[in-house]
């Protein structure tokens, strides 16, 4: 893709460099494949920039991200590029000390979001993947107003990528970059089941 | 994403395992972002399976894939997971010995495709990324009939991911899995230029 020339020069008083380095909220939504996969692909670029990366998986999944997780952990520990911190639901958030709520996914999702909020305030990472975060939003487990305000007022230069189907309309409005992954054809339509190396 | 149950059990005489391990042709097309990025994200899964990976970049680009390339090369050389061979246009295909055609992109694209064809016949890789391959197809530099027949008759278990806008309709018809990346909003619409860590 050529770098191109923006069709409009905004009248916002910022220099090109300031505009260029503006932190982005990015949403990958839609019924097709590639939402999370593209987010982890972007993480490779963030790693290459030397940025600290925080991954937060908001939906329990046994094997779906094993390839991405192993690869990004290895990259993060390589001593080249940025670091990678990988947090996931289901195995318990790393910051969740009590065990009584293990099956309370709503509480886990809220704990996860609270941690993201603290990390954004502390500028812990430069690149965040909130994987499948649209689901706890859609299910009302995490308050959309709080998320929008936290993203809007986050300090510094922190990019945040949010993935998942059915992104709330107000999140889409608030995002800088939105890609809708549409399903044109999927092997499961003709009876093909998921397979290693492709779906996980 | 849950693994799910296919809505139809095909009457093709194959066992579930045979169907499950069927090699796929995958197309990422559409005007939105994430086509190549999702392909490189998939490559992380292929790497995790220990599969040899071949990346072929069909359009010259100075810096657009530096993050992905550095990350995948490091992974490929880590001694864990699969190997990674990365071929790109513009710097000359590694197999292009003569130098007189350096500026003949059409010839380079054809040379690239010939190499892919040889690799498919030899089962050199298990996972191919033909990045931005739709463009030489659209420009008539590489013959679509040849590509479709080569993909259809490829031996063994070789997955092939093809990315780029405006995938030819017959390629879409021939593919097992097609995702259309639609642009909902892009920062360049409001004057934002590309930035490091995001676009490259």
How many β-strands of chain A, per DSSP? 6
Largest interface by Cβ-Cβ < 8 Å = A-B, 79 and 79 residues
Principal-axes geometry of chain A comes out as globular
Percent in strands of chain A: 15-25%
Residue share in helix of chain A: 25-40%
Distance between the termini of chain A: 28 Å
Task: Summarize model confidence as the mean pLDDT of chain A.
Answer: 84
Q: CATH class of chain A, please?
A: Alpha Beta
Spatially, the strands of the biggest sheet of chain A line up as 3-2-4-5-1-6
CA-based gyration radius of chain A: 17 Å
Q: Supply the helix-strand structural class of chain A.
A: alpha/beta
Largest sheet of chain A: 6 strands, parallel
How would you briefly describe this protein structure?
The structure is a homodimer of 200-residue chains. Helix content of chain A is 34%, strand content 17%.
């Amino acid at each position: 893709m050529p770098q191109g020339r923006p069709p409009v020069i905004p009248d916002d008083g910022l220099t090109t460099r300031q505009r260029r380095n503006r932190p982005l909220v990015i949403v990958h939504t839609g019924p097709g494949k590639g939402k999370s996969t593209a987010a982890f692909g972007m993480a490779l670029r963030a790693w290459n920039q030397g940025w600290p990366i925080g991954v937060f998986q908001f939906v329990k999944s046994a094997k779906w991200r094993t390839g991405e997780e192993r690869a990004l952990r290895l990259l993060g520990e390589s001593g080249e590029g940025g670091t990678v911190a990988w947090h996931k639901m289901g195995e318990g958030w790393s910051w969740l000390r009590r065990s009584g709520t293990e099956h309370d996914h709503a509480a886990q999702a809220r704990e996860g979001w609270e941690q993201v909020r603290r990390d954004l305030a502390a500028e812990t990472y430069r690149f965040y993947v909130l994987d499948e975060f649209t689901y706890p939003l859609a299910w009302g487990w995490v308050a959309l107003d709080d998320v929008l305000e936290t993203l809007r007022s986050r300090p510094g230069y922190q990019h945040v990528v949010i993935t998942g189907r059915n992104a709330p309309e107000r999140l889409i409005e608030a995002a800088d970059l939105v890609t809708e992954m549409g399903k044109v054809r999927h092997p499961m339509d003709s009876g093909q089941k998921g397979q290693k190396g492709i779906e996980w």
